[in-house]
TrEMBL record:
The gene is mazG. CDD domains: NTP-PPase_MazG_Cterm (cd11529), NTP-PPase_MazG_Nterm (cd11528). It catalyses: ATP + H2O = AMP + diphosphate + H(+). This is Nucleoside triphosphate pyrophosphohydrolase. One of its GO terms (molecular function) is ATP diphosphatase activity. It is an enzyme of class 3 (hydrolase). The lineage of its organism: Bacteria, Pseudomonadati, Pseudomonadota, Alphaproteobacteria, Rhodobacterales.
Length: 276
């Protein structure tokens, strides 16, 4: 099969990437691994790449972000190629769809509506347009359209946000804190008296309410947990560094010593913030 010169044209842009994917998926001359993939097998990679984009942004690693954005773009190309093979859609139809959606959802930019509105009003307008779109898709339920494939914590946040729009919400954060105390007590009871299945259920209830507390406090729980993960990694690595300075590793240490070093690392971080 003669090679398409487009594949080696570094200035060809998106059309080059589309042709590369088409070639990889060619049933006769493509890559065996790529040929075997389908939407279900590629979806986990798509989610992973989105998180790697978020990680690069959090670290402000702009060269890394460039590469991760390319990896994420490749996922879109992969799905559109498979969609075209199956006759569902094409790259061009996907581009047309999102372009039409952006124009329709920004009448204050591309239409006749006034731009003289706050960001909060624009958000309300955006949600109203999305609600009308769901009606057009026969999604009548309040919670319809909240993607099942979202990370569970993020989906909990979005489900609660959607329910709050129709008044199903606690009046204040204090009410949520009271509910957290109630759910914590139920988790302890389940641990002491009930089955492991009951423990899992009560633990899930507690996490669900924690996500709601984040919404009441203006905190996106998925982002907050990523930040907490990063902080834990940073501080634990600090503990490892201090152990290595005395010729030890975590395996050679104990909880008491590592906890003391954790406090040292934590204090050093706070002192650095104060100095800055």
């Amino acid at each position: 099969m003669p090679e398409n010169p487009l594949i080696h044209d570094q200035d060809a842009g998106i059309e080059r990437l589309i042709e590369i994917m088409r070639r990889l998926r060619d049933p006769k001359t493509g890559c065996p691994w790529d040929i075997e993939q389908d939407f279900d097998t590629i979806a986990p990679y798509t989610i992973e790449e989105a998180y790697e984009v978020a990680d690069a942004i959090a670290r402000k690693d702009w060269p890394e972000l460039e590469g991760e954005l390319g990896d994420l773009l490749l996922q879109s190309i992969y799905h559109t190629q498979m969609g075209e093979e199956a006759g569902h859609f094409s790259f061009q139809s996907v581009v047309r769809n999102i372009s039409d959606k952006m124009v329709a959802r920004h009448p204050h930019v591309f239409g006749t509506e006034s731009r003289d509105k706050s960001a909060e009003q624009q958000t309300r307008d955006w949600e109203a347009i999305k609600a009308a779109e769901r009606v057009g898709k026969a999604q009548q339920g309040t919670l319809d359209g909240v993607a099942v494939g979202l990370p569970a914590l993020l989906r909990a946040y979005k489900l609660q946000k959607r329910a709050a729009r129709v008044g199903f919400d606690w009046p204040s954060a204090q009410n949520v804190l009271d509910k957290i105390s109630e759910e914590s007590a139920e988790l302890v009871e389940a641990r002491d008296e009930l089955t492991q299945d009951a423990v899992e259920e009560e633990f899930g209830d507690l996490m669900f309410v924690m996500a709601n507390l984040g919404r009441h406090l203006g905190v996106e729980p998925e982002a907050a947990l990523r930040r907490a993960n990063a902080k834990f990694i940073r501080r634990f690595e600090g503990v490892e560094t201090r152990l290595s300075e005395i010729g030890k590793s975590p395996a050679d240490s104990n909880l008491e010593e590592m906890d003391a070093l954790w406090d040292v690392v934590k204090a050093a971080e706070r002192a650095a913030l104060t100095d800055n």
